[in-house]
Structures are given as C-alpha cells and as structure tokens.
C-alpha cells in the first residue's frame, strides 16, 4: 500500500481523524470544519507510531538528505522530531511558541549552530501560520531551513500560498484528499460526503457545504 493511503488508513483506524459534516468543529481560528485531526493519538498506538516515524525518517532522507538537525514545533511536533531524530541518528530540538520568561529565555531548545541545515518536524498543517513562524525563528537564529516534514496536511490554498511566500517546502505523509477517499471506501463517511469535505478544503470561508444536500 502506498504510504499516503497507509497513513490515512492508520489515522482512521485509531480514530485520530474525526468526521462531523453535520455538526462541524470550530477551530481556534474560528474556521468551521467537518474534520478534526488529532495526530497526538499516533503516539499511543505503537504500530501506527512506527509507520509515522519511519515515514518521516524516509521523507527526511529523500527530500532533505543533507539535514544536520531536526527541529520540532511546540508542542505537537516535539515527540515526532525526537523519535525521527533517533531513527536517523540526528540531533533534535524544538521551537517554543514564544521565548521563556525565565532562565536563559530561550525560544529554541537544544543546540542549534548558525548555518546548520535544519528540517522542521510538524504534525499537521492547515493554514500554515504556526509552522512558518517556527521557520522564521530558525532563520533568524542563522539556521539554513531545508524544509518541513509533517504527518498530515489539509492542502488549503491559504497554507500553500503562505509556504510559497515563505520560500519553504513541506512534504506530508498523507493529505486531506487521501484521508477523505479512504474514509469513504472504508465506510467511515458516506461517499456523497466527500464532495462536501473537498468543498470545505477548497474554500473554508464558504460554509455552504454545512447544509448541502447529500
């Protein structure tokens, strides 16, 4: 099974992806979504965790073979950066959402030297704002950010445009379209719901999909 479908199947199996097209979730940004993805659940499912971490390690080797260090996003990317770093024998650290107000007042935890080729490890990308903040912090510290690896991406236009504007690439193990396709095939959602899910993905600000006839 190709990796995208394998990871999609894994996430659905452990109920890391929730579908509620009739009763949408509300994200912190205010966006109403028919889907909620909780990749933290992969950490408590050893077989899925193995697929995810080996997949992330393979992505680093394939797309960023010159990586010197992995940097996880806080907090969801930290464990994945640590495990992937262990598999690859690479150092890792993580970037806080803000500098500490005590001690050394670090925002970057772990040793990062100027010029080091760095890969950011993220669990999920939607509009791309938070991961780009991490990229910017690393660049300001002198790192050469090669790119991002992540478990799941919604593939939203806004996120794609933000990544392009920041001149950074992302490679995700699976994506929204693949998860929706596998979910319909395996009976997690009705086949007619796929169109509604894709309509949300294409334009989250247009909420007409919520009451759309199936």
Descriptive account of the structure:
With 214 residues, the chain is α/β, with parallel strands linked by helices. 38% of the residues lie in helices and 21% in strands. The chain contains 7 helices and 10 strands. The protein has helices spanning 3-13, 46-63, 78-88, 129-140, 157-165, 176-185, 193-202; strands spanning 17-19, 25-26, 32-33, 35-37, 69-73, 92-95, 108-109, 117-125, 144-153, 170-175. The strands form 3 sheets. It has a 6-stranded mixed beta sheet, sandwiched between helices. Helix 1 runs antiparallel to helix 2 (46-63), helix 2 (46-63) crosses helix 3 and helix 6 (176-185) packs antiparallel against helix 7 (193-202). The longest helix is centred in the N-terminal third of the chain and has 18 residues, at 46-63. 40% of the residues are buried. The model has no long low-confidence stretch (mean pLDDT 92).
Observed structural traits:
214 residues, alpha/beta, 6-stranded mixed sheet, two-stranded antiparallel sheet
SSE topology:
Layout: H1 3-13, E1 17-19, E2 25-26, E3 32-33, E4 35-37, H2 46-63, E5 69-73, H3 78-88, E6 92-95, E7 108-109, E8 117-125, H4 129-140, E9 144-153, H5 157-165, E10 170-175, H6 176-185, H7 193-202
């Amino acid at each position: 099974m190709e990796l995208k479908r394998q990871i999609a199947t894994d996430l659905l199996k452990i109920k890391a992806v929730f579908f509620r097209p009739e009763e949408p979730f509300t994200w912190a940004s205010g966006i109403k979504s028919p889907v909620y993805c909780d990749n933290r659940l992969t950490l408590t499912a050893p077989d899925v965790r193995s697929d995810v971490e080996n997949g992330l390690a393979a992505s680093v080797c394939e797309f960023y073979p010159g990586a010197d260090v992995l940097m996880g996003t806080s907090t969801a990317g930290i464990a994945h950066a640590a495990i992937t770093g262990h598999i690859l024998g690479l150092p890792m650290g993580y970037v806080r959402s803000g500098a500490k107000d005590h001690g050394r007042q670090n925002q970057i935890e772990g040793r990062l030297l100027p010029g080091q080729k760095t890969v950011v490890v993220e669990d999920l990308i939607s509009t791309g704002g938070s991961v780009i903040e991490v990229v910017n912090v690393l660049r300001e510290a002198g790192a050469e950010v090669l790119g991002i690896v992540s478990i799941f991406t919604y593939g939203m236009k806004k996120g794609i445009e933000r990544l392009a504007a920041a001149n950074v690439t992302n490679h995700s193990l699976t994506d929204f379209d693949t998860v929706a396709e596998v979910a319909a095939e395996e009976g997690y959602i009705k086949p007619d719901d796929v169109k509604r899910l894709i309509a949300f993905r294409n334009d989250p600000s247009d909420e007409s999909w919520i009451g759309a006839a199936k």
